[in-house]
Model the fold of this input.
Amino acid sequence: MPAKVTLSQIEAFSVVARLLSYTRAGEELGYSEAAVCQQVHRLQDILRLQLLAKHRRGMVLTEAGKRLAQLADQIVSQVKNFEVTAEAIREEMHNTVRVASGNVTATFLLQHVLNRFRERHPDVRIEIAVTTSDTIVDGLTEGRYQIGVVAVTEASSPLSVGPRNGLEAALWLEDEWIVVGPKRFRQGTQHEIRTIFYNTAYPASLPLLHICLSKNRLPHPPELVPLTTVDAVKAAALGGLGHAFQPGMAVVSELELGLLERALPAGVSRKLFIVRHRRLPSQAKLLYEFLRSWQEKSSSQRGAAARA
Done:
């Protein structure tokens, strides 16, 4: 019986054709370079076609390779869509919606919103995965989550969503990373900003803090002190030890109560996007629509508090 083409061979060829590198394709697929190379060579043997050729600048697709690469992409995309659809059916049967977000968003925003949703829909079970924004899109593409809340800042890469991975994104809320401190450090007396605490649990916080400081042009560079949690950073500022660099939503209550105030005029933009599968089961769609309606009612109030 003649050998048949396998899905793993098609997937390997699809990635190699896009990256034109066995090494990078192996890294993306999680296989060794030799394993990917073997899959593609076996595919060429079965098809009796040369799909890739060596070139002085590396690797190129042959004419046959170009034509089959497009079809390979479509096949891989259809298989992923098949898997996501099957997962959606399974989740609908189990009545569970899986949501992913970063730690700050989950702690200071999402828990509150989801509690409101549960009051209206107690029969819907929700699981929250707290992870980094960089991994949320991958998790959605792989079907591990149905809805994700992704924070995008001035230092972030663009969101990778579209027909290729079956995802779409919508702006949900706008926030800022800001420097706050007790009222005894009055805004306008920037020489008083001698120490700023930041959160090491969020890897981008230090680069974002440098962006914030460059925007505000302080006369004297402050000491930057790392702490391991959002609460520790906030407590340091509330205790009068210095200033804190935080997302606005993390200090909304303290700003409204007058316990903290904004210390520098310029912040760093932080936008929250809801990323979702184009095809959602009914329970996930119900939650998505609730999140969008909550945005319309609440975003202006939170934005005003962060600007206070």
